[in-house]
Design goal:
Elements lengths: L1 E8 L12 H10 L3 E6 L4 E7 L3 H16 L5 E5 H9 L11 E6 L19 E4 L3 E5 L8 H5 L2 H4 L3 E5 H12 L1
Antiparallel strand pairs: 1-3, 1-4, 2-3, 5-7, 5-8, 6-7
């Protein structure tokens, strides 16, 4: 039985590093046996259909193929369509500017590593945690956010990739097409 997935490729087409046309990513995904492959922007957002399988297997298959075919050692974070829709529906953070609302996707649950953060220290920035996502509203701007800097791969102990709220909702719209 097939299902829909979202793959978030970390660090694709950021600056001069890991440059790859999305047409190549779509082709690679099709060669892996996935169908209805669609991408959003040039930053590694892929919606596709494939056999119902554990997410970790899907992540590993895509990451292995990216490295083998394109020479890109890229972290791949996958969510099922239901998981991704929950990220949108369960957003507990309200902000005036959707460009300043970021969702950090984690490769594994790591919320327990945030217990020592005092949210009041970062006001007016706010954050909220789901098991494998962190919502951050960067009230003073994304580039100036002290809070975003806290959620590094090193601190979290896993791969982390961020998308702004507009991108997250656009990916959800692709799932609904």
């Amino acid at each position: 039985m097939d299902r829909s997935y979202v793959a978030l490729l970390r660090g694709i087409n950021v600056g001069a590093h890991n440059r790859v046309p999305m047409a190549d990513v779509r082709s690679l995904m099709t060669r892996l046996g996935y169908s209805d492959v669609r991408t959003h922007l040039q930053s590694g957002n892929v919606v596709f259909r494939g056999p119902d399988a554990p997410v970790a297997e899907v992540e590993r298959a895509i990451a292995d193929r990216l490295e083998a075919d394109l020479g890109l050692p890229v972290a791949v974070l996958v969510r099922t369509d239901e998981e991704f829709r929950e990220v949108v529906a369960d957003n507990p953070v309200v902000g005036e500017d959707p460009a300043r609302l970021m969702v950090l996707f984690l490769s594994e649950p790591a919320g327990h590593k945030l217990a020592d953060i005092d949210p009041t220290r970062y006001a007016p920035e706010v954050f909220a945690v789901r098991p494998a996502e962190i919502y951050v509203y960067c009230a003073i701007g994304v580039l100036e956010s002290a809070l975003l800097k806290l959620f590094s791969d090193r601190r979290m102990g896993c791969a982390v990739t961020a998308r702004n709220w507009r991108t997250v909702t656009r990916i959800a719209e692709l799932l609904d097409r």
